UniProtKB/TrEMBL annotation:
Pfam families: IU_nuc_hydro
Protein name in UniProt: Nucleoside hydrolase
Organism: Microvirga arabica
Organism lineage string: Bacteria, Pseudomonadati, Pseudomonadota, Alphaproteobacteria, Hyphomicrobiales
Inosine/uridine-preferring nucleoside hydrolase domain ranges (all copies): 10-295
UniProtKB keywords: Glycosidase, Hydrolase
One function term, GO molecular function aspect: hydrolase activity
UniProt superkingdom: Bacteria
Length: 307
């Protein structure tokens, strides 16, 4: 059942087309009170991900939500090359306004730690859409603050599915395996949303056309963002909506099937970097392994088209 009371929420992100869709969904949903957006390098460099976060907030005229720039590189290795999938600007060239204000001067991890300590324990949820570098640094540098997180929902990993950057590796965990390993082993209240689920929430061309024709500017913008995914992929009939599944789970966990698994993260330098392994020595994590895809897509459409 959808939460009746809004949850105080921080979005940690590397926008990113599907990050952008997830952020717009959160902005459209009264179930979230968004306290801030923290950025991380991932899909593209930190300056661009931070700018894109500001552009999305400017589109919705949400000057009340501050943006804090976070990690520009992984914990202990060289960062990945930017993904061509999202275009040079990271969001497929979709027209968005320039940021209406500058990001805050405080580093994302410092702000998040202080904010968590100011709020009652368990009152703040973190929705993580990119590499887990900021959250790993929080757990390592400010564990007393990290322990106050109510729930961390992160898109990342692959359990039984083939990876998207290697046979078993998904981009967010592959981009910073050491950070993923820290977060998975931290004991924090983590819900992981892997490719096993996100590949089953798929936008069709008909779905895109419906959003694009809607009178709500946010629905039309999301339609444009998804359409940019289809460009250059003429033979594809649908595209998975990875990061929005984080928000969809937060809105309606009953649409997802959760299993508790013991997981470890491969921190090697080979093709399995960032891969998840189920093992008795792993850390207990709540993992989404099933979803009612059509119902999740319908929920997304209802929130975006509400007037």
């Amino acid at each position: 059942m959808t939460r009746a009371k809004p949850r105080l929420t921080v979005i940690d992100t590397d926008p990113g087309i599907d990050d952008a869709i997830g952020i717009l969904l959160a902005l459209a949903s009264p179930q979230f009170t968004i306290a801030g957006v923290t950025t991380v390098a991932g899909n593209i460099g930190i300056e661009t991900t931070t700018r894109n976060a500001g552009r999305l907030l400017a589109f919705e005229d949400r000057e009340d939500i501050p943006v804090f720039q976070g990690a520009s590189a992984p914990l202990s290795r060289t960062g990945p090359e930017p993904l061509n999938l999202h275009g040079e600007d990271g969001i497929g060239g979709v027209a968005l306004p320039d940021p209406a204000w500058l990001p805050e001067s405080q580093h994302a991890v410092e702000w998040l730690a202080n904010f968590l300590l100011e709020q009652p324990a368990g009152a703040v949820d973190v929705l993580a859409l990119g590499p887990l570098t900021n959250l790993a640094r929080l757990a390592l540098e400010r564990p007393e603050a990290a322990r106050r997180i109510g729930r961390m929902i992160a898109m990342g990993g692959a359990i039984h599915e083939h990876g998207n950057v290697g046979p078993r590796s998904e981009f967010n965990l592959w981009a910073d395996p050491e950070a993923a390993a820290v977060v998975v082993a931290s004991g924090l209240p983590l819900v992981l949303i892997p490719l096993d689920v996100t590949r089953r929430v798929r936008a069709t061309r008909e779905f895109v056309e419906t959003l694009a024709a809607n009178v709500n500017p946010m629905a039309a913008m999301v339609g444009s963002l998804i359409e940019s995914y289809f460009e250059g992929a003429a033979n594809r009939e649908s595209r998975p909506l990875h990061d929005p599944c984080v928000m969809l789970y937060a809105l309606a966990p009953e649409l997802f099937r959760i299993e508790e698994l013991r997981l470890s993260v491969d921190t090697g330098n080979g093709e399995a970097a960032g891969a998840l392994t189920i093992s008795p020595e792993g850390s207990l994590v709540q993992v989404a392994l099933g979803v009612d895809g059509p119902a999740a897509l319908d929920l997304l459409a209802r929130h975006l088209t509400a007037i």
